[in-house]
Amino acid sequence: DGGITQSPKYLFRKEGQNVTLSCEQNLNHDAMYWYRQDPGQGLRLIYYSQIVNDFQKGDIAEGYSVSREKKESFPLTVTSAQKNPTAFYLCASSIPGQGRNEQFFGPGTRLTVL
Amino acid sequence: AQSVTQLDSHVSVSEGTPVLLRCNYSSSYSPSLFWYVQHPNKGLQLLLKYTSAATLVKGINGFEAEFKKSETSFHLTKPSAHMSDAAEYFCVVSRPFSGGYNKLIFGAGTRLAVHP
Protein backbone atom coordinates (compact mmCIF):
# COMPACT_ATOMS: atom_id res chain seq x y z
CA ASP A 1 0.00 0.00 0.00
CA GLY A 2 1.22 3.48 -0.83
CA GLY A 3 1.47 6.01 1.92
CA ILE A 4 3.53 8.12 4.27
CA THR A 5 5.17 6.69 7.37
CA GLN A 6 6.53 8.65 10.29
CA SER A 7 8.63 7.33 13.10
CA PRO A 8 8.68 7.16 15.98
CA LYS A 9 5.05 7.71 17.02
CA TYR A 10 6.11 9.13 20.38
CA LEU A 11 9.46 10.74 21.17
CA PHE A 12 10.85 12.10 24.40
CA ARG A 13 13.81 14.40 24.55
CA LYS A 14 15.78 16.13 27.24
CA GLU A 15 16.32 19.85 26.97
CA GLY A 16 19.43 20.73 25.00
CA GLN A 17 19.35 17.62 22.82
CA ASN A 18 18.83 17.49 19.08
CA VAL A 19 16.37 14.91 17.81
CA THR A 20 15.51 13.71 14.29
CA LEU A 21 12.02 12.75 13.12
CA SER A 22 11.70 10.39 10.20
CA CYS A 23 9.33 10.76 7.24
CA GLU A 24 9.21 8.31 4.34
CA GLN A 25 6.78 8.13 1.42
CA ASN A 26 6.31 5.59 -1.37
CA LEU A 27 3.77 7.64 -3.32
CA ASN A 28 6.41 8.89 -5.78
CA HIS A 29 5.52 12.46 -4.83
CA ASP A 30 8.01 15.19 -5.61
CA ALA A 31 7.05 17.61 -2.85
CA MET A 32 7.25 16.99 0.88
CA TYR A 33 6.34 19.17 3.83
CA TRP A 34 6.76 19.37 7.60
CA TYR A 35 4.09 20.92 9.83
CA ARG A 36 3.84 21.58 13.51
CA GLN A 37 0.52 21.31 15.37
CA ASP A 38 -0.14 22.84 18.79
CA PRO A 39 -3.37 22.42 20.79
CA GLY A 40 -6.17 24.65 19.58
CA GLN A 41 -4.24 25.77 16.53
CA GLY A 42 -4.13 24.75 12.94
CA LEU A 43 -1.02 23.39 11.32
CA ARG A 44 1.93 25.66 10.68
CA LEU A 45 4.49 25.02 7.95
CA ILE A 46 8.09 24.44 9.07
CA TYR A 47 9.92 23.45 5.87
CA TYR A 48 9.05 22.17 2.43
CA SER A 49 10.90 20.57 -0.44
CA GLN A 50 9.83 20.45 -4.06
CA ILE A 51 12.68 18.32 -5.40
CA VAL A 52 15.62 16.32 -4.16
CA ASN A 53 18.50 18.36 -2.74
CA ASP A 54 16.36 21.47 -2.46
CA PHE A 55 14.22 22.78 0.39
CA GLN A 56 12.73 26.06 1.58
CA LYS A 57 11.86 27.58 4.93
CA GLY A 58 8.23 27.78 5.85
CA ASP A 59 6.61 30.09 8.35
CA ILE A 60 8.29 28.79 11.52
CA ALA A 61 11.69 27.36 10.46
CA GLU A 62 13.77 28.73 13.34
CA GLY A 63 15.26 25.94 15.44
CA TYR A 64 14.62 23.25 12.81
CA SER A 65 16.66 21.76 9.97
CA VAL A 66 15.89 19.31 7.15
CA SER A 67 17.57 17.39 4.37
CA ARG A 68 16.27 15.87 1.13
CA GLU A 69 18.88 13.45 -0.17
CA LYS A 70 16.30 11.00 -1.55
CA LYS A 71 12.90 11.54 -3.11
CA GLU A 72 11.32 9.19 -0.60
CA SER A 73 12.75 10.70 2.56
CA PHE A 74 12.51 14.09 4.29
CA PRO A 75 13.83 13.93 7.88
CA LEU A 76 13.32 16.83 10.28
CA THR A 77 15.82 17.68 13.01
CA VAL A 78 14.58 19.61 16.01
CA THR A 79 17.61 21.39 17.41
CA SER A 80 18.31 22.68 20.86
CA ALA A 81 17.73 26.18 19.47
CA GLN A 82 13.99 25.50 19.18
CA LYS A 83 12.62 27.18 22.29
CA ASN A 84 9.34 25.29 22.59
CA PRO A 85 9.64 22.00 20.71
CA THR A 86 6.88 20.03 22.46
CA ALA A 87 4.25 19.52 19.75
CA PHE A 88 2.70 17.11 17.27
CA TYR A 89 4.68 16.99 14.02
CA LEU A 90 3.10 16.00 10.72
CA CYS A 91 4.77 15.21 7.43
CA ALA A 92 2.93 15.52 4.11
CA SER A 93 3.56 15.07 0.41
CA SER A 94 1.99 16.16 -2.86
CA ILE A 95 2.39 16.20 -6.61
CA PRO A 96 2.33 19.31 -8.76
CA GLY A 97 -0.84 20.09 -10.65
CA GLN A 98 -1.89 23.66 -11.25
CA GLY A 99 -1.42 24.41 -7.58
CA ARG A 100 -4.68 22.81 -6.59
CA ASN A 101 -3.75 19.36 -5.42
CA GLU A 102 -4.27 18.21 -1.91
CA GLN A 103 -1.50 17.11 0.41
CA PHE A 104 -1.35 13.63 1.88
CA PHE A 105 -0.42 13.35 5.53
CA GLY A 106 1.45 10.84 7.64
CA PRO A 107 0.26 9.67 11.07
CA GLY A 108 2.44 12.14 12.98
CA THR A 109 5.09 12.10 15.71
CA ARG A 110 4.38 13.50 19.16
CA LEU A 111 7.51 15.07 20.61
CA THR A 112 7.72 15.83 24.31
CA VAL A 113 10.64 17.68 25.86
CA LEU A 114 11.26 16.70 29.45
CA ALA B 1 -3.46 37.18 1.19
CA GLN B 2 -5.22 33.95 1.98
CA SER B 3 -6.74 33.19 5.37
CA VAL B 4 -9.44 30.98 6.79
CA THR B 5 -11.66 31.37 9.85
CA GLN B 6 -13.53 28.52 11.45
CA LEU B 7 -16.36 30.13 13.30
CA ASP B 8 -16.80 27.51 16.01
CA SER B 9 -14.02 25.91 18.02
CA HIS B 10 -16.39 23.24 19.41
CA VAL B 11 -19.63 21.79 18.05
CA SER B 12 -21.72 19.20 19.88
CA VAL B 13 -24.54 17.22 18.26
CA SER B 14 -26.61 14.16 19.02
CA GLU B 15 -26.20 11.03 16.97
CA GLY B 16 -28.57 11.09 13.99
CA THR B 17 -28.91 14.89 13.87
CA PRO B 18 -27.40 17.18 11.22
CA VAL B 19 -23.87 18.52 11.40
CA LEU B 20 -22.85 22.04 10.36
CA LEU B 21 -19.25 23.21 10.65
CA ARG B 22 -18.75 26.78 9.48
CA CYS B 23 -15.80 28.19 7.56
CA ASN B 24 -15.17 31.59 6.00
CA TYR B 25 -12.19 32.28 3.80
CA SER B 26 -10.31 35.19 2.37
CA SER B 27 -8.42 34.86 -0.88
CA SER B 28 -7.07 37.18 -3.52
CA TYR B 29 -7.15 34.33 -6.02
CA SER B 30 -9.86 31.98 -7.13
CA PRO B 31 -9.35 29.64 -4.19
CA SER B 32 -8.93 25.96 -3.77
CA LEU B 33 -10.58 24.88 -0.54
CA PHE B 34 -10.35 21.68 1.44
CA TRP B 35 -11.82 20.05 4.51
CA TYR B 36 -9.60 17.63 6.42
CA VAL B 37 -10.52 15.45 9.41
CA GLN B 38 -8.19 14.40 12.21
CA HIS B 39 -8.97 11.71 14.76
CA PRO B 40 -7.05 11.87 18.06
CA ASN B 41 -3.30 11.39 17.68
CA LYS B 42 -3.68 10.63 13.98
CA GLY B 43 -2.72 12.29 10.74
CA LEU B 44 -5.10 14.31 8.60
CA GLN B 45 -7.44 12.72 6.08
CA LEU B 46 -8.96 14.62 3.18
CA LEU B 47 -12.76 14.78 3.34
CA LEU B 48 -13.38 16.83 0.22
CA LYS B 49 -11.99 19.59 -1.97
CA TYR B 50 -13.29 22.44 -4.09
CA THR B 51 -11.28 23.37 -7.18
CA SER B 52 -13.60 25.66 -9.18
CA ALA B 53 -15.82 22.96 -10.62
CA ALA B 54 -19.25 22.33 -9.05
CA THR B 55 -19.99 24.57 -6.08
CA LEU B 56 -21.56 21.69 -4.12
CA VAL B 57 -18.82 19.23 -3.33
CA LYS B 58 -19.47 15.72 -2.05
CA GLY B 59 -16.87 14.00 0.05
CA ILE B 60 -16.33 10.79 1.94
CA ASN B 61 -18.49 9.46 4.77
CA GLY B 62 -21.57 11.43 3.69
CA PHE B 63 -20.05 14.89 4.13
CA GLU B 64 -20.54 17.70 1.67
CA ALA B 65 -19.66 21.38 1.44
CA GLU B 66 -20.99 24.29 -0.58
CA PHE B 67 -18.75 27.00 -1.98
CA LYS B 68 -20.49 30.39 -1.81
CA LYS B 69 -18.38 33.09 -3.36
CA SER B 70 -20.73 35.93 -2.43
CA GLU B 71 -20.51 34.93 1.24
CA THR B 72 -16.87 33.76 1.09
CA SER B 73 -17.97 30.60 2.88
CA PHE B 74 -17.30 26.90 2.59
CA HIS B 75 -19.42 25.26 5.29
CA LEU B 76 -19.25 21.51 5.90
CA THR B 77 -22.47 19.56 6.43
CA LYS B 78 -23.70 16.05 7.01
CA PRO B 79 -27.38 15.10 7.26
CA SER B 80 -27.01 12.61 10.09
CA ALA B 81 -24.11 12.42 12.54
CA HIS B 82 -22.55 9.13 13.51
CA MET B 83 -20.51 8.45 16.63
CA SER B 84 -17.47 7.81 14.46
CA ASP B 85 -17.65 11.41 13.15
CA ALA B 86 -16.31 12.71 16.46
CA ALA B 87 -12.97 14.29 15.52
CA GLU B 88 -11.30 17.62 14.73
CA TYR B 89 -12.09 19.20 11.38
CA PHE B 90 -9.89 21.68 9.55
CA CYS B 91 -10.93 24.08 6.82
CA VAL B 92 -8.01 24.84 4.52
CA VAL B 93 -7.38 27.33 1.74
CA SER B 94 -4.66 26.83 -0.82
CA ARG B 95 -2.24 29.40 -2.11
CA PRO B 96 -0.39 28.43 -5.28
CA PHE B 97 3.31 28.98 -5.56
CA SER B 98 5.96 28.15 -8.11
CA GLY B 99 6.27 24.80 -9.82
CA GLY B 100 2.59 23.93 -9.62
CA TYR B 101 2.67 23.38 -5.87
CA ASN B 102 0.48 24.96 -3.27
CA LYS B 103 0.82 26.20 0.28
CA LEU B 104 -1.99 25.13 2.61
CA ILE B 105 -3.31 27.66 5.10
CA PHE B 106 -5.18 26.03 7.95
CA GLY B 107 -8.02 27.22 10.11
CA ALA B 108 -7.73 26.67 13.85
CA GLY B 109 -10.00 23.65 13.73
CA THR B 110 -13.46 22.69 14.99
CA ARG B 111 -13.79 19.85 17.45
CA LEU B 112 -16.97 17.87 16.79
CA ALA B 113 -18.48 15.88 19.65
CA VAL B 114 -21.28 13.38 18.95
CA HIS B 115 -23.48 12.26 21.83
CA PRO B 116 -25.65 9.12 21.90
Distance between the termini of chain B: 41 Å
Mean pLDDT of chain A: 91
Structure summary, number of beta strands of chain A:
11
General shape of chain B: globular
Oligomer: heterodimer
Helical element count of chain A?
0
C-alpha geometry of chain A: globular
Overall mean pLDDT of chain B stands at: 92
Largest sheet of chain B: 6 strands, mixed
What gyration radius of chain A follows from the Cα positions, in whole Å? 13 Å
Helix content of chain B: under 10%
Whole-number radius of gyration of chain B? 14 Å
**Distance between the ends of chain A:** 36 Å
What is the helix tally of chain B? 0
Q: H/E element string of chain A? A: EEEEEEEEEEE
Sheet bearing the most strands of chain A, described? 7 strands, mixed
Helix percent band of chain A: under 10%
Structural class determined from secondary elements of chain B: mainly beta
Question: Which helices and strands, and how do they pair?
Answer:
The complex is a heterodimer of chains A (114) and B (116).
Chain A: E1 4-7, E2 10-13, E3 19-25, E4 31-37, E5 43-51, E6 54-57, E7 64-66, E8 76-78, E9 87-94, E10 104-105, E11 109-113
Parallel strand pairs in A: 2-11
Antiparallel strand pairs in A: 1-3, 3-8, 4-5, 4-9, 5-6, 7-8, 9-10, 9-11
Chain B: E1 3-6, E2 10-14, E3 19-21, E4 23-26, E5 32-38, E6 44-50, E7 56-58, E8 64-68, E9 73-78, E10 87-97, E11 101-106, E12 110-115
Parallel strand pairs in B: 2-12
Antiparallel strand pairs in B: 1-4, 3-9, 5-6, 5-10, 7-8, 8-9, 10-11, 10-12
Task: Give the key terms.
heterodimer, A: 114 residues, mainly beta, 4-stranded antiparallel sheet, B: 116 residues, 0% helix
3D architecture notes:
The complex is a heterodimer of chains A (114) and B (116). Chain A is mainly β and 114 residues long. In chain A, 0% of the residues lie in helices and 49% in strands. In chain A, strands 2, 4, 5, 6, 9, 10 and 11 form a seven-stranded mixed beta sheet that branches. The termini of chain A are far apart. The mean pLDDT of chain A is 91. Chain B has 116 residues and is an all-beta fold. Chain B has no helices and twelve strands. Chain B is globular. The model of chain B has no long low-confidence stretch (mean pLDDT 92). The chains are: A mainly beta (114), B mainly beta (116). The A-B interface holds A 4, 6, 31, 40-45, 48, 50, 88, 90, 92, 94, 96-108, 110 and B 9, 32, 34, 36, 41-46, 49, 51-52, 90, 94-97, 99-104, 106-109.
